[in-house]
């Protein structure tokens, strides 16, 4: 199946010489949720802006559902909904009219029932006649989402959609994302809340300094780059590791009462049993045992550090 979005050798260099994107290539599948992770200034918003036709690339090509984003702007833009970081709405217009206007702007016929459905999904129906200037920051963010969905796009971009908003909106947002996924909408999001990407994304892309470092299935990424740790509490502290354990990748805490053994995900099942057997043979008194697993955030920080 052809990708719904195909990005080829994309480059964006500004007049001051700054390169925001450096030879980025990426295929996005229809119906998937792709999370783009990267620090501030990494190029995430620039990439989204080019795919959405807001900014032109210096070089390269973007094709959306078979149409070039530069040559066929109207065709591609009608397929895309964008929730930007910034609040850019008429503060004196009502919620209902703002969302309805956005639908018309994208060439769709009026459909009040559909607009009300969106407002209801986003807990905005009781605010339909309120002016935007009367709303809280979180409610204004909901209006941006409603505008992006007003013309029934098949592709939705969420650029830091939950940054600075309350927990209730964050929960509503991800419930809505899941409903959209079930309808076949392709969703691309950028977020600083890495635990959210770990929770809902199918694939994860990491971008830094304008370069796309990787795009990987989330579960495969966790298996490939993740680690597990065996944490052993000792009943009696020790001053240092016995020499007989020097060949093991063990860390002893400052108090001398906790050992941590790191091992790769997917290691043979017997690895923990062997380590515990060696600890016992070394004369250590073992207490509580636990394991913990590397998170997506750990992997992200590691990748960014390697490419700093």
From TrEMBL:
It comes from the Bacteria. Residues 5-234 form the ABC transporter domain. Keywords: ATP-binding, Nucleotide-binding, Transport. Gene3D superfamilies: P-loop containing nucleotide triphosphate hydrolases. Pfam families: ABC_tran (PF00005). GO terms for molecular function: ATP binding; ATP hydrolysis activity. The keyword Glycosyltransferase does not apply. The keyword Nucleotide-binding applies. Belongs to the ABC transporter superfamily. This is ABC transporter ATP-binding protein. It comes from Peteryoungia ipomoeae.
């Amino acid at each position: 199946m052809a990708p719904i979005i195909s990005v080829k050798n994309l480059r964006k260099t500004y007049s001051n010489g700054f390169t925001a994107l450096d030879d980025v290539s990426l295929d996005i599948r229809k119906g998937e949720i792709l999370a783009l992770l990267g620090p501030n200034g990494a190029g995430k918003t620039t990439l989204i802006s080019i795919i959405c036709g807001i900014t032109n690339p210096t070089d390269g090509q973007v094709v959306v559902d078979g149409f070039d984003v530069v040559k066929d702007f109207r065709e591609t833009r009608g397929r895309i909904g964008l929730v930007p970081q910034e609040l850019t709405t008429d503060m004196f217009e009502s919620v209902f009219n703002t969302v309805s206007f956005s639908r018309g702007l994208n060439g769709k016929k009026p459909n009040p029932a559909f607009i009300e459905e969106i407002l209801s999904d986003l807990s905005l129906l009781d605010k339909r006649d309120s002016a935007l200037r009367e709303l809280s920051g979180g409610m204004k963010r909901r209006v941006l989402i409603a505008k992006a969905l007003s013309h029934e796009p098949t592709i939705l971009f969420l650029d830091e959609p939950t940054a600075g908003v309350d927990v209730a909106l964050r929960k509503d947002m991800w419930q809505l994302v899941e409903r959209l996924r079930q309808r076949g909408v392709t969703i691309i999001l950028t977020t600083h809340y890495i635990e959210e990407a770990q929770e809902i994304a199918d694939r994860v892309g990491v971008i830094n300094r304008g370069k796309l470092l990787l795009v990987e299935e989330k579960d495969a990424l966790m298996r490939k780059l993740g680690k597990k740790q065996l944490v052993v509490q000792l009943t009696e502290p020790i001053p240092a590791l016995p020499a007989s354990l020097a060949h093991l990748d063990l860390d002893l805490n400052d108090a001398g009462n906790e050992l941590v053994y790191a091992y790769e995900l997917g290691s043979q099942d017997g690895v923990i049993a062997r380590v515990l057997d060696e600890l016992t043979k070394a004369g250590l008194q073992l207490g509580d045992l636990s394991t913990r697993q590397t998170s997506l955030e750990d992997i992200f920080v590691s990748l960014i550090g390697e490419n700093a």
